[in-house]
Amino acid sequence: TKRIFKMSFNFFLLSDSIYKLTGDYKQAKKHHVEIYSFIDKLTAKNESKQHEIDPQSNLFLDLFYKIRGTMSYDELREGIFMFLLGGYETTGNTIAASLLLLAMNPEAQERVAAEVKDALGNDREVTEDDFGQMLYLERVIKEVMRFFPAALLAGRSVEKDVQLSRKKTQN
Asked: Using a CB cutoff of 8 Å and minimum separation of 24, what contacts does 81-84 make?
């Protein structure tokens, strides 16, 4: 996001050749290596558990291991990267939009704060069960997501012909 912001004010950065000469590129490359190193450790740690996966499991890595035979390790790695990145970005954007709309509506902000305080008291960690009690907060989050959906669209392109029912798509 920072790169996109900078690029919109400096057209020289639109060129990958020039961008690769900047400190921002070097920093992004360093972060890229760190993220993939984390993913490699995560998958190596869980690779030994592959034979123990419950077929009914919907856990994130278990789902990837269920389809592991249909993709290369690089594809698996990219898929995990996209889920991590997508989860980070969409969560951050939803929180930011929620805070903005609550700041613009002090009555709703006070009502959410009161509901959270009633559910949690003064000094304890939130649990999954607490969310069932915070119905107004849930409605606020759903309304935020209606105004600012996490994903507006997902672009896809067909790389090879696919048989759908009786018709065949062509790329």
From this structure: 81/35, 81/36, 81/39, 84/35, 84/39
Euclidean distance between CA atoms 40 and 127, whole angstroms: 30
Contact between 101 and 147 (Cβ < 8 Å) = yes
**2-9 and 23-47 helices, crossing angle to 10°:** 160
Query: For residue 46, what are the contacts with CB-CB under 8 A and spacing of at least 6?
Result: 61, 65
Contact status, residue 3 vs residue 13, Cβ threshold 8 Å:
yes
Whether the model clears a pTM of 0.85, i.e. scores above it, the answer is no
Q: What is the tens place of the pLDDT at every residue in 16-75?
A: 888 888 888 888 889 889 988 988 887 776 665 555 656 666 566 666 666 666 777 788
Residue 159's contacts (CB-CB under 8 Å, 6 or more residues apart) are 171
